[in-house]
Here is the input.
Amino acid sequence: MSRLTRRTLLTGSMTGLVLLRSTLSGLAQQGGPLPDGAIDGFGGYDDDRLYRDQNGALYRRRGGEYVPYSGRESYGRPVPGSEPPRRRAEEPAPQPGIPGEPRQRAAVDRPLDDGPIDYARAYAAITDDPFPVQAFNWRKANPVFLRQEVSYSGRHEPGTIVVDPRAHHLFLVQSGGRARRYGVGVGKQGFSWSGASTINSKQAWPDWYPPKEMIARTPKLAREVSQLQSGLGVPGGTRNPLGARALYLWQDNKDTLYRIHGTLEPNSIGHSVSSGCIRMINQDVIDLYGRVAVGTKVVVLT
Here is the structure.
């Protein structure tokens, strides 16, 4: 191959690469989808689905985090080319978390204790978390609502969370016909619910944003909330009703507003007192938090 021919081929190849790069860059700036097989098939997002919060706002997932979506929607999916230009690389990255609950504290990575349950150790004070957790006086509690390993003969597969509101028990189904059982507080009359949902997010010491209706009907709560990053709420910490951990339950890509969470009132475990959420002793919800992943199925029985 002559030197002139080689130079012509190389020049043509570089021109083609420049054109391809320019095309991809233009598509990205327009917010449209990149061609099949291009750098990121969903334009930098994790999937091609939309997620809606309790206020009707739309979000997409990017890097496991939820970012606002302002384009058009068609059957629960984004309309290509309708989204404004993508955030430039030098702009601040979106805040981690989920819509309405953007801020959480780092959870301590605790090794799972699968040995015999020692209540003195299981319910001892926790001092190395972002906020301290007081010891739970398990000796004065009804033993039926303490953490236990029990036999399980239900139809749900291992890894599923099953809540029995009548018995005030939460089961984490395990293999071999066993389950890890915890006592819970559930919804009072008029606030109970049942059905299947999915854990869409796990958060440690999260901020709490109660619905406006709850604030309106609870004068005491109105005095507790303050202006936070995403509206009126209670910051994560020792006075937050969500306690040390919260698992957020969604159905059909929508936030149910129900949570499995810790509590400031451990003596309420075993009773129907909440506004529909499933509350646990803080030490128990920390234990459960470490055993389940986002995507875990949750079934609340009737």
